């Protein structure tokens, strides 16, 4: 059983590489544009493959249109990949938008903004302390 899992994982990895090449080099559909294949999850019986993809687009409507274009071309993409892989049965492809990359970038930007805001507040607070200390030093010197 463990051997079955490793075989499906190896097939998924090879399928991911082949899909990335096919989508980059062989697909001429302008609706799809630049697509990145993040992961491929193959069923145990190799009949289905979930292909997780991302795009540079953030607009949900455009992303949905691109996923629909990929789904419409799934049979053609499947035939191109089947010619490159030596499998008895080529899995049926299902394209799924993977928003984890976009969410990760959004979270990274939020963290960076909070850090820069915090540094600005600390600097401002430090400048205020310097001003109050220098005024205290001047008042002590007058006595």
Task: Describe this structure as you would to a colleague.
The termini are far apart. This protein is α+β, with helices and mostly antiparallel strands. The longest helix has about 45 residues. The chain has a 3-stranded mixed sheet with strand order 1-2-3. The model has no long low-confidence stretch (mean pLDDT about 85). The protein folds into 2 domains: about 100 residues, K homology (KH) domain (GMP Synthetase, Chain A, domain 3, 2-Layer Sandwich); about 45 residues. The protein has 4 helices and 3 strands, in the order αββααβα.
Produce a short descriptive summary.
By secondary structure, the protein is α+β, with helices and mostly antiparallel strands. Helices cover 64% and strands 15% of the residues.
Please render the helix and strand layout as text.
Blueprint: H1 2-26, E1 35-42, E2 48-55, H2 60-72, H3 74-84, E3 92-97, H4 100-142
Parallel strand pairs: 2-3
Antiparallel strand pairs: 1-2
Helix pairs in contact: 1-3
List keywords for this structure.
RbfA_dom_sf, 15% strand, 143 residues, GMP Synthetase, Chain A, domain 3, 3 strands, Ribosome-binding factor A, cytoplasm, alpha+beta, 2 domains, ribosomal small subunit binding
